[in-house]
Design a protein that fits this description.
Elements lengths: L1 E2 L5 E2 L8 H6 L3 H8 L9 H8 L1 H11 L3 H19 L7 H14 L3 E6 L5 E3 L4 E8 L2 E2 L5 E4 L12 E5 L16 E6 L4
Antiparallel strand pairs: 1-2, 3-7, 3-9, 4-5, 5-6, 5-8
């Protein structure tokens, strides 16, 4: 599905399926068959709906432009094969999965730092200055780079507020004030 806020870029949709959710929905025998080297036991759309939860399934279906029942049926048809493929010969290859996860993390950005080039700016009219306070995601920016989005929060499509507030001017400070400032945002790669 495209996201009009992010220039029509497709937004990823996740469907929350956990081993606990499958077990709690009474699907432990099916799950064991999918992981084992034997045949896969089938699962129904209703069982998938119970495992995920109606609200979460409806949210995922809406973001994909699908009906919840249709999405549950697709998951019921595809999930056994996906888990079976992820567990060849009846076991999950955790070492390979962990290596792949580390490689994926290494390719994604880490946190976002920001600072004001030259330090905090002021409004200026030629003789008087009025201090400006610039904040990004609640962090007051200075000339020193500071984290404004942590590693977990800085995912593609994340948006954060930036506010610029002028100090209250004195009664004698009137006229046309202007300011120039450059705010620098740096991606700080995830450390391993």
């Amino acid at each position: 599905m495209t996201d009009p806020v992010n220039d029509g870029v497709a937004t990823p949709t996740t469907v929350p399926i956990s081993v606990k959710g499958l077990s709690d929905a009474g699907l432990e025998p099916q799950l064991r068959s999918w992981i084992s080297s034997g045949p896969n036991e089938p699962v129904t759309a209703e069982q998938i709906t119970r495992a995920i939860g109606e609200d979460r399934l409806a949210q995922a279906a809406e973001s994909l432009g699908r009906e919840p029942g249709d999405l549950a049926a697709s998951l019921a048809a595809d999930l056994p094969g996906l888990i079976d493929t992820a567990s060849p010969n009846g076991h999950v290859e955790l070492a390979r999965a962990q290596d792949e996860a580390v490689a994926i993390q290494a390719r994604t950005a880490g946190s976002i730092h920001a600072y004001i080039e030259g330090g905090p700016a002021s409004l200026y009219n030629g003789s008087d200055a009025i201090a400006l306070t610039t904040k990004s995601n609640g962090v007051t920016l200075t000339a020193i780079p500071q984290e404004v989005l942590d590693d977990a929060t800085s995912t593609p499509g994340t948006q954060a507020d930036m506010t610029i507030t002028a100090a209250r001017p004195l009664d004698t400070q009137n006229g046309l004030y202007t300011a120039d400032m450059t705010v620098i945002f740096d991606a700080v790669p995830r450390s391993q």
